[in-house]
């Protein structure tokens, strides 16, 4: 029987059969300024000629799946003919959901998977549990690990011991990629150019130019210098969607410090924005969010667990989710943890080659594991026992 693994994130869905490669697809619908009446779904984004002023219709709000109409349309598209051609009656599905998900959302998901799509069997699981499974698979001698998943809506910190999640140690910080993009939009709109409607473009700017500072105050001093001495400053060429399809950073040797560019390109000049925006992950209080940053939250999470587990957790910290791709993220996190953790405990932070698909790969491994059949709920089980069988089996 085929197994479809779907890491259903709030920004992208990572999907693929367990024998094949993963596809990363936007988990939302879009409307564009130019074609207001037409709605584009998931990877149809590529068909939009002019993605300026792109309007996102998201199934997730604040990290929870609330808009089922949009989610169904995205799933219909993914499962349909042009994408994965799913034969529901012969397919088992592994699907992720957030920690401490609401019962009403879980029940809706059971109904849609079993009653509407009629999958043969299903497993609902947290993305962090799949990441932990992946890690223990690659390092079978390790007892514990700590998954730091910094995604679109939240950053979750989840300790695992022998593949079992330690619920009392799970922490959540209400800072994710969406907040960072919105903050960057506000800064640029205030300082240079009104971009509050340009989520798509500014998200690209964030991914292309932002980085995590290793010495925040020193970088702040450099960012205030004039001309070529300002090593932080970058000029970003915005797309016009006719000749420039995708924005890019001007090479430093081509930057003009005084005067204008002759080419007529639209330029954003970015200095301290480049590191101030990702800094929110480490210091949410900078913009008035009264919460711990990631390093403090990790220490808080580990200290809430038995003492004998703590050294193992500090030594096996895995980073997943899109925000961990900011240059300097891993180094800064390791350095801050080092200063917070007792000197005799070793600290090790691992950034996988592809942190966005790490949990999907874990789902792929799980689908091939001998215990998989014990973990799923079959459609027969569901038809006989309803939601309670899912509650028993899925330890969410």
TrEMBL record:
CDD domains documented for this protein: ASKHA_NBD_Arp6
Record's keyword terms, sorted: Cytoplasm, Cytoskeleton, Nucleus
Location (main, coarse): cytoplasm
Gene3D superfamilies linked: 3.30.420.40, Actin, Chain A, domain 2 (2.30.36.70), Actin, Chain A, domain 4 (3.90.640.10)
InterPro entries per the UniProt record, alphabetical: Actin (IPR004000), ATPase_NBD (IPR043129)
SUPFAM superfamilies to which the protein is assigned, alphabetical: Actin-like ATPase domain
Keyword Cytoplasm: yes
Coiled-coil stretches noted in the UniProt entry, renumbered to this chain: none
Pfam families for this protein: Actin (PF00022)
Domain of life, per lineage: Eukaryota
Protein's recorded name: Actin-related protein 6
Organism taxonomic ancestry: Eukaryota, Metazoa, Chordata, Craniata, Vertebrata
């Amino acid at each position: 029987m085929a197994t479809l693994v779907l890491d259903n994130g709030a920004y992208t869905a990572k999907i693929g059969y367990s024998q094949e490669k993963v596809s990363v697809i936007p988990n939302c619908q879009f409307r564009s300024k130019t074609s207001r009446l037409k709605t584009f779904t998931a990877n149809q984004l590529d068909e939009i000629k002019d993605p300026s002023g792109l309007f996102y219709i998201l199934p997730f709000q604040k990290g929870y799946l609330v808009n089922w109409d949009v989610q169904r349309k995205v799933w219909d598209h993914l499962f349909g003919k042009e994408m994965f051609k799913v034969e529901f009656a012969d397919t088992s599905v592994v699907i992720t959901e957030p920690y401490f998900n609401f019962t009403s959302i879980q029940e809706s998901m059971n109904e849609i998977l079993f009653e509407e799509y009629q999958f043969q069997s299903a497993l609902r699981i947290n993305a962090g549990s799949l990441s932990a499974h992946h890690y223990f698979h690659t390092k079978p001698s390790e007892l514990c690990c700590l998954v730091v998943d910094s995604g679109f809506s939240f950053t979750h910190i989840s300790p695992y011991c022998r593949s079992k999640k330690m619920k009392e140690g799970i922490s959540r910080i209400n800072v994710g990629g969406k907040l960072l993009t919105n903050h960057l939009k506000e800064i640029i709109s205030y300082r240079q150019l009104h971009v509050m409607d340009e989520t798509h473009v500014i998200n690209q700017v964030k991914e292309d130019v932002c980085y995590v500072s290793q010495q925040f105050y020193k970088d702040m001093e450099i960012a205030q210098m004039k001309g070529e001495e300002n090593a932080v400053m970058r000029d970003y060429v915005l797309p016009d969607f006719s000749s420039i399809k995708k924005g890019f950073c001007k090479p430093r040797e081509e930057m003009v410090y005084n005067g204008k560019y002759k080419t007529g390109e639209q330029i954003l000049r970015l200095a301290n924005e480049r590191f101030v925006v990702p800094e929110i992950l480490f210091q949410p209080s900078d913009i008035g969010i009264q919460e711990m940053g990631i390093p403090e939250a990790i220490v808080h999470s580990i200290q809430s667990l038995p003492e004998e587990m703590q050294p193992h957790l500090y030594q096996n910290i895995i980073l997943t989710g899109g925000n961990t791709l900011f240059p300097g993220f891993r180094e800064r996190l390791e350095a801050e943890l080092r200063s917070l953790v007792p000197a005799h405990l070793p600290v090790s932070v691992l950034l996988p080659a592809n942190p966005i698909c790490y949990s999907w790969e874990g789902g792929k491994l799980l689908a091939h594991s001998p215990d998989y059949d014990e973990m799923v709920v079959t459609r027969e089980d569901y038809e006989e026992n309803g939601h309670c069988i899912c509650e028993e089996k899925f330890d969410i």
